[in-house]
# Entry
Amino acid sequence: MSELTVKAEKLDAADELAGKRAEFVLDEVVYLDGNSLGALPAAVPDRVADVVRRQWGSLRIRSWDESGWWTAPERIGDHIAPLVGAAPGQIVVGDSTSVNVFKALVGAVRLVRLAADAGVRDEIVIDATTFPTDGYIAESAARLTGCTLRPVTPAEVPGVLSGRTAAVLLNHVDYRTGRLHDLPALTAAVHDAGAISVWDLCHSAGALPVGLDAHGVDLAVGCTYKYLNGGPGSPAYLYVRRDLQDRFDSPLPGWNSHAEPFGMRPDYEPAPGALRGRVGTPDILSMLALEAALEVWDDVTVEAVRAKSLALTDFFLECVQEYVPGGRVESLTPVAHEERGSQVALRCADAGDVMKRLIERGVVGDFRHPDVLRFGFTPLYVGFGDVERAARVLGEALG
Amino acid sequence: MSELTVKAEKLDAADELAGKRAEFVLDEVVYLDGNSLGALPAAVPDRVADVVRRQWGSLRIRSWDESGWWTAPERIGDHIAPLVGAAPGQIVVGDSTSVNVFKALVGAVRLVRLAADAGVRDEIVIDATTFPTDGYIAESAARLTGCTLRPVTPAEVPGVLSGRTAAVLLNHVDYRTGRLHDLPALTAAVHDAGAISVWDLCHSAGALPVGLDAHGVDLAVGCTYKYLNGGPGSPAYLYVRRDLQDRFDSPLPGWNSHAEPFGMRPDYEPAPGALRGRVGTPDILSMLALEAALEVWDDVTVEAVRAKSLALTDFFLECVQEYVPGGRVESLTPVAHEERGSQVALRCADAGDVMKRLIERGVVGDFRHPDVLRFGFTPLYVGFGDVERAARVLGEALG
# Structure
């Protein structure tokens, strides 16, 4: 038994979250792709069966009231809220992340222009290394609001902010490198420039503390199928800080965001609160699967998850150092804890082929074009023994 | 046994679609609310269970390829296509109807402005009696594209078209009255004015022939949870006529519409074909439930469905005439077949209370503010005996 195997056993024995793994459907595979699609929470299948057979099949239309379908977007938003440091009443679930980025950015430009001293605010600053959809949607939002796009690295953001900055769209954690950006400092810099901050939490929510309220974030979006385990393409969410809600002016004012949706009135009057982030009829099957998935969080703190996440990625880097031939991979993931999300990205010339070999050997991560091996660590169901095995198999695959 | 009961039995005995009812989960209730939420097709529960347990739970991330998740939006679009008279490759499924109305209207304004002789096209004509969300979203599309909104009744549309008309958004069937509008003539009038037609098919698709290709419709949207029985909030769809696809310029260019979505390229390049109507990650649970639901159409023609639909609504009006005390209700639904969708709307001063009494007695329709009783007839699972019973119970409730 190697030294690292012994260490893994000790770490697993001391892991206070170890019991959570039993709340997921898992097998002998080491699943390090939860940052792409979270594993299936064990509570989901029966819940979905009930939604389909009883709520839809038997109660049918009555379920909009009796099964709480109508209020699901805000109810489930409130379930997500503590995971991202938000008080209730500020998050609604629905639509894809891309659609929510669009709502948030157009909404942000409109918000900033409401100020009496707004001046000309016609620049949207985005993270040049962002997940591409954010950039594509930002380009569209810019075009429709008469703005131009300014792509820079997050480190360059403070230097480019000016009286022309309308909004700044940033990723909390970079999807390729796993780098965690400094949300409090960057949000403060955006505010100092009189602009609106929009954060994409796809790769941080459920993996580490976000502190939306504490840091005064204006708007935020995120998906729910990564660390929140909501299922493939499960609905995303939109956070609008409470004191901005009355002025939030959505470019997608569907009937679900109306103050009186069943009044069927020809004139639009937005609902108060987070509700005005809703658009059309909510996607109930996916949404209620997500609701069941979120129950695994009921007895867990994000702080405990973060502590384990850092221990997992530390241990993975230690095992890689030990098992992988020198020079074969290069870590893109920051060493400093305060700069690291819950994934490790290793650059490797033949990453595509290597990932295929890993998957054949029961270690599932993913490949990101052109040369990145990406391993996500979901503290609720990944253990230290998994980490040791993954690094060992990686060493063998690269040997 | 009354004359109408005998007639119902004869009509049911001669109904070639009568056997389809067994493909749905139904009970003793007369369900006339399929134009709000279609009943559960019997194939759906097992399919959804397989998607959740095996595809997500066991294959996990591999299902994006191996279970056909990634291509679901266009594959399911092609399954809907024959129901609305479209050749394959022109429909993608995803997002809500509201979001698709937004894509279609902004896309329409951009399309019309591409013409060399476009001139100033700055008016969007909409149906003043439309389902409200279409009007709210149209107002947003107008605001973002520098247009003004011109709400008129569908009958007034030809008279207001001009060289300033950019796009015309119409409902094929009115959600309140059940009136079927003349899609071929109105589309031709819109084209004569050099404008783009956008049709909302929510209340017609699956109930009657639409003929999108045959009538040269430019863009269309529709939901899938009414006559297509896709389930609560199941994803909507967008039709872009083939010869417009290369110029269709979506305001929601998410990464799923990119020519090379996994290239993760910073610059947006739209995919060819209908794919460019996609936005973000597709909502797999709801989408694959819809795919299972659509299988009931595999051995059915829309023409047969239409013939039965008209027979059902004719018979309902006949029974109402017989059973309901004179003057107690007023039909808002056109008598002429060519002007009638698949629902009957009855105006009744105390409609809200009356619908409650009907539901208590096992006849489920719905109430539309302020004074409309709405009854939808889904030919795949509603029989003539149901119709007779519904009218009889209505007569008793009003007696």
